[in-house]
């Protein structure tokens, strides 16, 4: 099912107060979140901040699950942890916020308010200038072996 069909239903559920577990697709949140392996726990956004991972509609029917790197008035700048480029959206385009992730096929979640995720987020976002090199090493050492 295409995201443009599926994700509006996810948004409808979170808007109704439900928590939704969403299987992740794509490679933009590497190295810690992987395509087809990991899942995000999404809820309706109430209070969003720089550093939060959110589901946002960056253009009509085009959604991303990326980290907020800047908020200025009504404009939000997003970047996937595995990306160099950024996306822009308005505050109203943030449809859900990730409160945790099921990683590496585990049955217990890593929550975004826990020390492990906070430390990871703090370190990884500050490594931005050299992340492309770290991701290159990651792809060539770990992805090719799988």
Task: Describe the model.
The two termini are 27 Å apart. The protein has helices spanning 3-15, 115-126, 128-143; strands spanning 20-23, 39-43, 53-59, 62-72, 75-79, 87-90, 94-102, 110-111. It is built from three helices and eight strands, in the order H-E-E-E-E-E-E-E-E-H-H. With 146 residues, it is an alpha+beta fold. Strands 1, 2, 3, 4, 5, 6, 7 and 8 form an eight-stranded antiparallel sheet that branches.
Give structural attributes:
146 residues, alpha+beta, 8-stranded antiparallel beta sheet, 8 strands, 32% strand
Summarize the structure.
It contains three helices and eight strands, in the order αββββββββαα. With 146 residues, it is of the alpha+beta class. The two termini are 27 Å apart.
Name the assembly state.
single chain
Query: Could you spell the SSE succession in H and E letters?
Result: HEEEEEEEEHH
Radius of gyration: 15 Å
Gap from first CA to last CA: 27 Å
Give the mean pLDDT. 90
Total number of strands: 8
Low-confidence parts: none
Q: In one word, what is the shape?
A: globular
């Amino acid at each position: 099912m295409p995201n443009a069909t599926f994700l509006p239903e996810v948004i409808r559920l979170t808007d109704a107060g439900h928590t939704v577990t969403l299987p992740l697709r794509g490679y933009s949140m590497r190295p810690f979140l992987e395509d087809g392996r990991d899942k995000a726990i999404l809820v309706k956004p109430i209070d969003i901040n720089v550093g939060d991972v959110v589901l946002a509609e960056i253009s009509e029917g085009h959604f991303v699950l990326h980290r907020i790197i800047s908020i200025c008035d009504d404009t939000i700048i997003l970047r996937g942890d595995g990306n160099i480029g950024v996306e822009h959206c308005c505050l109203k385009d943030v449809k859900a916020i990730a409160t945790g992730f099921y990683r590496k096929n585990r049955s217990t979640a890593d929550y975004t308010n826990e020390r492990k995720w906070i430390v990871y987020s703090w370190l990884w976002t500050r490594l931005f200038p050299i992340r492309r090199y770290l991701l290159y090493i990651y792809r060539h050492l770990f992805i090719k072996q799988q």
